[in-house]
Amino acid sequence: MIGTENHTGESTKTLHLIFTLGVPGIGKSSLINTLRRASQAIPKMAVEVLTADEVRSAILAQEYQARSLQVENLSQEEIFKIEVESAPKIKTAFNEEVSNRLQKLSKVGSPLSLFFLDKNYCSASLVNHVNDEASKFFTGYNIERTLMVPDVLSGDLDSQKIVGPFRFETILVSLVRGLNRKNHITMNHGCRHVLLSFTGCLGSQLSESLESKFPKNQYRQLEVDYYSKDVAKEFLAAFPKQDQLERLRSVLMDVATKKTQIQDVEDYICGITSELVPMSTFKNLTEENAKEYLIAHFVSNRL
């Protein structure tokens, strides 16, 4: 629940709470890290980033040690099972870190503070917790709320071109990246583990209404280009196996909603996804571009 707003009409001090929406592989952390570096060149701006993967990785390392387990000796399913079992501990640690980071940011005393929550999926309880802690630590500040999204969906978009709150091409680009990236902090155990994590996150996104957690009258939606959307659209339009794209969407939805087991479709998903690699092209965001982006979207004319 949104806490009491801590602003007066004359206040020029602002806290931006910036939530993110995504699925594994989309590129949130890379973008946010670039924005954080660029923010150092903007006077009066203080930035704090809380990355879910870092908290998750630390708790899982403790869990493996407590159980006297070596990750390299575990199957991908066993690793994922431990991650699921550790979810309550991860949640508790993350909530504590939300409080710690917001308090740390408030002590900087900057008139312009940005708090990025680098997390694909936020539960309603987490959203409420962030808002409550922000209200506690940032008394006397205007509190502005933003949801960074890969897609702002229009009402007239073909339902076959969307998956929950995402365009289908966004799901495909994220899947391509997730299956092909190396040395990720948590998703580095093999294709099945990636698919279990990916479809688990997607299932969470499908299970809740975005509007119920992030109502548009309280959160502005800020669309972010994590990939070249024109390239992706052109590639998919020319892709010769259109029927397989339709099947892939259906399969992903079925796995995410637990109608199908991942082991029954793993080879198919990995096979067809390997043919989609050319659609994943990164947008070139320089630190100067990132600085301009921050100024355009988060710097008030009053500062």
Describe the fold and architecture:
- The chain has 303 residues and is an alpha/beta fold.
- It has a single domain (14-298), classed as P-loop containing nucleotide triphosphate hydrolases (Rossmann fold).
- Helices cover 52% and strands 12% of the residues.
- It has helices at residues 28-39, 52-66, 76-85, 87-108, 124-137, 168-180, 191-207, 210-213, 229-238, 242-256, 262-274, 287-298, and strands at residues 14-20, 45-51, 112-118, 142-149, 162-163, 166-167, 220-223.
- It has a 5-stranded parallel β-sheet with strand order 2-3-1-4-7, with helices on both faces. A two-stranded antiparallel ribbon has the order 5-6.
- The longest helix has 22 residues, at 87-108.
- The chain starts with 13 loop residues before the first strand and ends in a 5-residue tail after the last helix.
- Residues 3-8 have low confidence and may be disordered.
Number of helices: 12
- CATH homology superfamily: P-loop containing nucleotide triphosphate hydrolases
Structural class designation: alpha/beta
**Oligomer designation:** single chain
Q: How many strand segments? A: 7
How do the strands of the widest beta sheet line up side by side?
2-3-1-4-7
Whole-number mean pLDDT: 89
The largest pleated sheet is described as:
5 strands, parallel
CATH topology: Rossmann fold
Order of SSEs, N→C? EHEHHHEHEEEHHHEHHHH
CATH second-level architecture:
3-Layer(aba) Sandwich
Low-confidence stretches: 3-8
Spatial shape: globular
CATH class category label: Alpha Beta
**Binned strand content:** 5-15%
Helix content: 40-55%
